[in-house]
């Protein structure tokens, strides 16, 4: 998160960090670039992100990243939001996950409509362009 926010800030773009208290008490947050909103819980973080975001783009990350990705996909399926969700598949990190999602769709655990919620394109500029024109309705 720190590398991305620093780069965005250097390019004169807005940075908004939504930081749960567990991140600050466990020293998981470095120096803040831009505006910061402190929240009590991870759930409150996701709610705040959903309210303030126009779209969601997942960058390579670990369990927390995946949890947030699938929470936003679940909320889209439940019509809690209609915002596009993209995944930047840098160095094919998410290939196995995408194969699993496709397999789950083939096995009828995920609908075709549900599968279309997640957009995955590797070049960042193409992903941003695609996310700009997608609607989940």
Overview of the molecule:
- This protein has 137 residues and is of the alpha/beta class.
- 48% of the residues lie in helices and 14% in strands.
- It is built from 7 helices and 5 strands.
- It has helices at 2-10, 21-25, 42-52, 63-77, 95-106, 112-115, 124-133; strands at 16-20, 35-39, 56-58, 85-87, 118-120.
- The strands form 2 sheets. A 3-stranded parallel β-sheet has the order 3-4-5, sandwiched between helices. A two-stranded parallel ribbon has the order 1-2.
- α4 links the parallel β3 and β4 (85-87).
- It is globular, with a radius of gyration of 16 Å.
- It starts with a helix and ends with a helix.
Give the beta-strand count: 5
Q: What is the strand content?
A: 5-15%
Strand order of the largest sheet: 3-4-5
Query: For the terminal residues, how far apart are their CA atoms?
Result: 30 Å
Helix content: 40-55%
How would you describe the shape? globular
Task: Please write the string of helix (H) and strand (E) elements.
Answer: HEHEHEHEHHEH
Q: Could you report the average pLDDT, rounded to the nearest whole number?
A: 86
Q: Any idea what the radius of gyration is?
A: 16 Å
Instruction: Tell me the major beta sheet.
Output: 3 strands, parallel
SS-based class: alpha/beta
User: Multimeric state of these chains?
Assistant: single chain
Are there runs of 5+ residues with pLDDT below 50, and where?
Answer: none
Count helical runs. Answer: 7
């Amino acid at each position: 998160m720190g590398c991305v926010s620093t780069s965005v800030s250097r390019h004169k773009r807005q940075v908004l960090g939504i930081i749960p208290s567990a991140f600050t008490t466990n020293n998981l947050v470095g120096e803040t670039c831009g505006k910061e909103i402190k929240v009590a819980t991870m759930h409150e973080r996701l709610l705040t992100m959903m309210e303030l975001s126009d779209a969601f783009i997942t960058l390579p990350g670990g369990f927390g990243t995946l949890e947030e990705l699938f929470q936003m996909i679940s909320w889209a399926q439940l019509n809690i939001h209609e915002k596009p969700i993209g995944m930047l598949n840098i160095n094919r990190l998410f290939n196995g996950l995408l194969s699993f999602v496709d397999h789950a769709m083939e096995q009828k655990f995920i609908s075709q409509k549900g599968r279309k919620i997640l957009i995955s394109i590797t070049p960042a500029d193409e992903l941003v362009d695609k996310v700009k024109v997608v609607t989940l309705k």
